[in-house]
From TrEMBL:
Oligomer and partners: Tetramer of two alpha and two beta chains. Forms complex with the iron protein (nitrogenase component 2).
The protein's required cofactors: [7Fe-Mo-9S-C-homocitryl] cluster; [8Fe-7S] cluster
Protein name (record): Nitrogenase protein alpha chain
Keywords of this entry: ATP-binding, Iron, Iron-sulfur, Metal-binding, Molybdenum, Nitrogen fixation, Nucleotide-binding, Oxidoreductase
EC class (word): oxidoreductase
Keyword Iron recorded: yes
One cellular component (GO) term of this entry: molybdenum-iron nitrogenase complex
Annotated catalysed reactions: N2 + 8 reduced [2Fe-2S]-[ferredoxin] + 16 ATP + 16 H2O = H2 + 8 oxidized [2Fe-2S]-[ferredoxin] + 2 NH4(+) + 16 ADP + 16 phosphate + 6 H(+)
GO terms of molecular function: ATP binding; iron-sulfur cluster binding; metal ion binding; nitrogenase activity
Length: 546
C-alpha cells in the first residue's frame, strides 16, 4: 500500500475567492451573482440565505439544461413501457435517445422502448402550417407498431411558439384507441428557468393521468415507494437488491426502471421514501394529501446513509421482525464496505473535492467523500431551490415570481373512497418523538463546514476560476465541464452520468465509488499534461480590449 505524499495545503480565504470570482463582472451582474455565491456559516437559529431558482444572466455559459430536458429526459426518460414521443425538430429529439445513463431491465413482458427515439421530426412547413396533423399521424404509427399501454407527447420550444394544441390531439387519440392512455406535456424548453420546471410539469401529469388508476390489490409486505431515484448507472438495481434482502416491497420507483403499472398502483404503498428532494418532493405531498401516505427523506448514496435510511423505514413500520432483518442485512453488507474503506483511506484522506451537479447529488455525494476522509470545499446546485440549500423551513418564505407562476400547482384533495391515513396522529407523533422526521429535509448548508463556498448555478467561467484558485483534488460535474477541467490538470468525475461507471448507491455502490475516486485523485496524469502551444506558442495575440 502506498501512501499519498504530504500535500502542501493551498491557502485561501473564502472572502478573497468570492471577490476574485466576481471581479470580472459588470457591477449589475456582480451584484446578482454575489447573492448566489455564499460563504457557509453556522448561524444561531437559521441558515444563511442564498438566491436560487432564478434566471441565468444572458451571456453567461450556464451548466443548466432546459425545461424539456427535465420533463422528457429526467422524469419520463427512465419509464420503459411508455412510448415517449417528442413533438419537435430532430435536434431536440436526439437528446431523447437515452443520452442519460438510465438503466432498465425489459421485465417479463419485454415491453421496453427506452432505446428508441420517437419524434415527429418537424420541418419548416410544419412550423408554418402547424404540426397537429403530423403529431396525430405519429401517435397512430406508434400505436400500430407497438400497441403500448401509454403514449406520452412532449412539446419542444417551436410547438409552444406556433401554438399546436397537443393536449387536444392526445385526448382525441386516447378516445380513439380505448386501450392506450395518451397524454401530453407542455414542457417547452423556455417554460421555466431550468430543468426543475420540467420535473414539475412531468410529475403533475404523471400524477393526474396515471397514479391511482389501478386498484387491483398488490402483494408484498412493508410496501414503500421510492421517489426521486432514476437508476443512473444501475443505482436503482442496487437499492432494489437491498430492499429485497430486507423484505421491503418497493411498489414503484419514480421513475428509475419504472413501468406504467408501478405508477398506477403506487397509491397502495404505505410509505413514500424521497431520495431526490428537488425533483419530486411535491409528489410526496400530493400522495399524502390524496391517499394518506406519509413521507420521509432517505438517501442511499453512502454506506452509512444507506444503513440510516433502511433503519428509518424499519422504524416506520415498527415491526420487530423487519427491524431485526434490516440489522442483519447491514451487518452482512458492512464488512466488505469497511474493508474497501480501510484500503483507500490512507491514500484519500485529507483530499478535497468540489461538487456541482443538478439538485441533490451535490449534497448526497458529500457522504461518500466523508467516508473516504475527503472534504468538500465547494458545492452547489444547477437548479435547486432555496429549500434544497437551507431546508424546508424556508418554504413559506419563498416568493412566487413570474417564472414560478408559469408552472402549474395542482390542487389535490383527499380521495373520496381511497384516502386512508396509514398512521394515526398519535402514532405519527410517537414516531417523531423517537427521532423519525416526516416531511423534513434540512438541505445542504448545515452539512457543509464553515467557510466552504456554496454556489448556485455555477457557470463555466467561475468553475475554471474556482479550480485555478482552490486547486481541489477532484472536481465533480457533468460532460460540459469534463474536458475544460481536465485541461486545468485536475481529475474530473461526472456525477450525472458517472462516466461509464456505477452503481454508486447502496453498499456495493459505495465500494465502487471509493475505488474509482481513489484511482482518480491519485493519478498524476492530468497534472503532467501540457498542450504543445502552452509550451511553445507559435502565434501570440491579444484581445482588442486588453
Ligand atoms: Fe435529482 Fe437526479 Fe439530481 Fe435531477 Fe438531473 Fe440526474 Fe442531477 Mo443530472 S433528478 S436533481 S435533473 S438527483 S439528471 S438523476 S444527475 S442534474 S443532481
Amino acid at each position: 500500500m502506498t501512501t499519498a505524499p504530504e500535500k502542501k495545503p493551498v491557502q485561501w480565504d473564502p472572502t478573497d475567492i468570492k471577490a476574485e470570482l466576481l471581479k470580472k463582472y459588470p457591477p449589475k451582474v456582480a451584484r446578482k451573482r454575489a447573492r448566489q455565491i455564499l460563504i457557509n456559516e453556522a448561524l444561531e437559529n437559521d441558515t444563511p440565505e442564498i438566491l436560487a431558482n432564478v434566471r441565468t444572466i444572458p451571456g453567461i455559459i450556464t451548466m443548466r439544461g432546459c425545461t424539456y430536458a427535465g420533463c422528457k429526459g429526467v422524469i419520463l426518460g427512465p419509464t420503459r413501457d411508455i412510448v415517449n414521443l417528442v413533438h419537435g425538430p430532430i435536434g431536440c429529439s436526439f437528446y431523447a435517445w437515452l443520452t442519460r445513463r438510465n438503466q432498465t431491465d425489459a421485465g417479463e413482458d419485454g415491453e421496453q422502448y427506452m432505446n428508441y427515439t420517437f419524434s415527429t421530426d418537424m420541418q419548416d412547413s410544419d412550423i408554418i402550417f402547424g404540426g397537429e396533423k403530423k403529431l396525430e399521424m405519429a401517435i397512430q404509427e406508434a400505436y400500430d407498431t407497438f400497441h403500448p399501454k401509454a403514449i406520452a407527447v412532449f412539446a419542444t420550444c417551436p410547438v409552444g411558439l406556433i401554438g399546436d394544441d397537443i393536449h387536444t390531439v392526445a385526448r382525441k387519440m386516447k378516445e380513439k384507441f380505448g386501450d392506450c392512455n395518451v397524454f401530453a406535456f407542455s414542457c417547452e424548453g423556455y417554460k421555466g428557468v431550468s430543468q426543475s420546471a420540467g420535473h414539475h410539469i412531468a410529475n403533475n401529469q404523471v400524477f393526474r393521468h396515471i397514479v391511482g388508476t389501478n386498484d387491483e390489490p398488490q402483494e408484498g409486505e412493508y410496501r414503500i415507494n421510492l421517489l426521486g431515484e432514476y437508476n443512473i448507472g444501475g443505482d436503482g438495481f442496487e437499492i432494489d437488491r437491498i430492499f429485497k434482502k430486507c423484505g421491503i416491497t418497493n411498489v414503484a420507483t419514480f421513475s428509475g426502471n419504472s413501468t406504467y403499472d408501478q405508477f398506477a398502483t403506487s397509491h397502495q404503498a404505505d410509505l413514500n421514501c424521497v431520495m431526490c428532494h428537488r425533483s419530486i418532493n411535491y409528489v410526496a405531498d400530493m400522495l399524502e394529501t390524496k391517499f394518506g401516505i406519509p413521507w420521509v427523506k432517505v438517501n442511499f448514496i453512502g454506506a452509512e446513509a444507506t444503513a440510516k435510511s433502511l433503519r428509518k423505514i424499519a422504524a416506520y413500520f415498527g415491526d420487530q421482525e423487519l427491524i431485526d432483518r434490516v440489522e442483519k442485512v447491514i451487518e452482512e453488507e458492512m464488512p466488505a464496505v469497511k474493508a474497501a474503506q480501510e484500503d483507500v483511506l490512507p491514500r484519500t484522506s485529507g483530499k478535497t473535492a468540489m461538487i456541482f451537479v443538478g439538485g441533490s447529488r451535490a449534497h448526497h455525494y458529500q457522504e461518500l467523500f466523508k467516508e473516504m476522509g475527503m472534504k468538500t470545499i465547494s458545492a452547489g446546485y444547477e437548479f435547486a431551490h432555496r429549500d434544497d440549500y437551507e431546508g424546508r423551513h424556508v418554504l413559506p418564505k419563498l416568493k412566487v415570481d413570474a417564472d414560478s407562476r408559469n408552472i402549474e400547482e395542482i390542487e389535490v384533495e383527499p380521495d373520496e373512497t381511497r384516502y386512508r391515513p396509514r398512521k394515526t396522529p398519535e402514532e405519527l407523533k410517537a414516531l417523531e418523538e423517537a427521532g423519525l422526521k416526516f416531511k423534513s429535509y434540512e438541505g445542504l448548508l448545515p452539512d457543509m463546514e464553515e467557510g466552504t463556498l456554496v454556489i448556485d448555478d455555477l457557470n463555466q467561467y467561475e468553475a475554471e476560476k474556482l479550480v485555478e484558485l482552490m486547486k481541489p483534488d477532484i472536481f465533480c460535474a457533468g460532460i460540459k465541464e469534463k474536458f475544460s477541467i481536465q485541461k486545468l490538470g485536475i481529475p474530473m468525475k461526472q456525477l450525472h452520468s458517472y462516466d461509464s461507471g456505477g452503481p454508486y448507491a447502496g453498499f456495493k455502490g459505495a465500494i465502487n465509488f471509493y475505488n474509482e475516486i481513489d484511482r482518480l485523485v491519485n493519478s498524476r496524469v492530468w497534472s503532467y499534461m501540457k498542450a504543445p502551444w502552452q509550451e511553445n506558442p507559435q502565434l501570440s495575440g491579444a484581445y482588442v480590449w486588453e
